[in-house]
Amino acid sequence: YFGTYLGALLYTDRASLLFTREGLNIVRPLMTGGATSMYCGSAAPPPAWLKSDYGIDLDTFAQETIDELSIAPLPADLRGEASTRIAEAAASIGLEWQPQPKFMSPARSPNFDCGAHCMLGCRCRAKWSANEYLDEAVAAGCQLLTQAKVERVLIENGCAAGVQGTLAGGIPLEVRAEVVVLAAGGIGSPLILQNSGLREAGHGLAMDSTVMVYGVSEFEGIGHEPPMTYGYEDLESGYMLSTLIDPWLLYPLITALKGLRYPLTWPRWNRTLGVMIKVTDEVAGQIFAEHDISKPITERDQARFDRAIEVSRRILVRAGCAPDTIFVTPIRGTHPSATVRIGEMLDQDLQTRVRNLYVCDASTFPRALGRPTVLTIISLAKRLSKHLLTNVLSETPAERHAIQTEVGKEKTTW
Questions:
Q1: 210 contacts 304 by C-beta, under 8 angstroms
Q2: In a domain, 272, yes or no
Q3: d(Cα 87, Cα 232) in Å, to the nearest integer?
Q4: Would 106 be classed as within a structural domain?
Q5: For burial by CB atoms within 10 Å, which of 41, 54, 151, 270 has the most?
Q6: Per the structure, how many domains does the chain have?
Q7: Residue 30 falls within a domain, yes or no?
Q8: What's the domain range around 256?
């Protein structure tokens, strides 16, 4: 079912019907590869403030990944005529959209076929996903347990000692380990930490909150073109724009959340142009439980949306859309993140206050990125791997025992 509409429902939390208390829709893939199994394949460099404000330099790791995975914009002839028209319309009002770097190599596919359905999962194999890293790890001798749910970290004498959870059918699972790295995502990792006694996890989160602005033109729309082939960032105003539309069968479901008359625009999907707005939102709200999440839109967030929506309307009109066809979708949460923040719950090495318990995913971000997150997460993972290999796993058993003994003497309350 991978790459189909049915698969998109089967592989996501609550069949893609996960909502915050405020009504933000969150699509949360629960499968190997995580969000990279259902993303748009877009890449952006780690933000400069990670280095300047938090002392975390990811430049070398990001460039290594770019070279390793051949991250680059698609060739001009594959970026899409309608998408290019949107970028040219933006340029006409002084906004220089750039070709978006992609985790996508058409040469890998015997039949490159990319469109809005890319978000359901890549069936033509042109798009990279983290499953490729998993395949390499298994080939190197790692054991992969699927359909497993980790519920808590085992903590003994102030040190991580493994994890507990369940396998399919509710079979108890316990894995012992001297080092634990959580990578369950912006929602999953804080829930595991909460269950492990680190109650402050999940207090505040970012979402890179997103809307689509749609308009209908006389030309063919962007639905059959690769998603997000062009992008634009306004760092001062706190938003990103790109070319994007919801997949054909999901379009009426998403637009119905705005009102019953909006799915009536579905027959015009083939002529619809879309501009995605992603704002760098403020950390707010809380993860109370697995399906109980609060993420309010703050005044600053709304002001950023208002500014970006006005710009997007101008672009779509310039691109040939009739002004009376333009509308904005409800806000959705696309990148649950900043729930186990560096500088608060984590040190520069991504370690919690529990020795040898690390976190490495979007939950570690100190604040919203407001841009594609995958390259930053990979870079953090490479940096953490280097730290573990150099400074942690190189310790002898005697050294580790001595450290654990000293930690165990400390008065710690969980």
A1: no
A2: yes
A3: 9
A4: yes
A5: 41
A6: 1
A7: yes
A8: 5-46+80-129+204-333
